[in-house]
Amino acid sequence: MADDSRSPRGGSHRRRAGGRAGAGSGGGRGRRRKPPVRRKGRRIAAWSAAAVVLTGGAGLGFVYFKLNGNLHSVDINAALGKNRPDNVDNGSQDILVLGSDSRAGANGKYGRDEGSSRSDTAMIVHVYAGHKKASVVSIPRDTMVPRPECTTTGGKTSPAVRRAQFNEAYSIGGAVCTVKTVEAMTDIRMDHYLEVDFAGFQKLIDKLGGVEVTTTKAIHDKSSHLDLEAGTHKLDGEQSLGLVRTRKAVGDGSDLGRIKLQQAFIKALLDQVKSVGIFTSPTKLYGIADTATKALTTDRDLNSVNKLYGFASGLKGIGSDDMSMVTLPVGADPRDADRVVPVTEQADQVWRALRNDDEIPEAALKESREAGAEADGVVK
Fold it and tell me: Whole-structure pTM over 0.85, yes or no?
């Protein structure tokens, strides 16, 4: 997926200057040496290698266009225009990652949708300058927030409202409205947008060969089709999807407990990706890349294999131990017991830290640590 002029290991092909410069010097009666017998064989080998390179190049060209054709993108920059937070050039990056809750097509077996698609999972990934560590802030989908004016998927205007459930932004205006809502909440410009749906997530986990997790207690959830005893498990795609959607069988059954499970699973997934050895197997690499590009929707700046590969390469030094995962500090909504609202002071501290490329202060995380605490340590 990298530049075709480079080798699979990332470096350009170079011919080593080997051997001596030619016939010996000194004395006038030296005889010209006969050409080595192996020279003809080397010529044949060189032409054979050239043929392989040309054939491989054509194959890589096919793969490149095939994978490019899989990608879907949204031109968020064009849709939102200039009325956005400043694009701070300090070496950090902010990426909005969504798991879409569409029940269309292959996703239908995971339940019925109450209306149109929603963002089932939302995380802001802040990559610090130097790209050696990151903070991930999960936004509970039931958080009540102001939503700005958005253009609906049908092209109409939906006026701004002072109170809306966070994940309704996606059902009203898709990726563009969700990014606009997040930027209004945080005053942080999103550099990139990534979305994956249920069916794509499941297939990708299967292509990776599953993800190993340890559960400290049994999880039995009919809604998410998950049935696990306590112990170590190699979860396939369907089980992984069940785990990240489980809420009623862990803790108090709230979305906050489910977020704890998601955060633990993502760390396990990062470890699995690093250990799977996809670059030693072109077949495995192609299969994973094909599945991943079909599963993803990106912003327009990541809508090619080269751009996506370059973006991913810039993050490859970040492991699970380098990633701090927190939940947006929220408290009970006084107007609706089934909803939550941001704890203003602590939420502001979180967003201020990310804007300034600083570590999130511990004082801001008190509510986050306590929220869904019953689910802490259930998955390792």
Answer: no
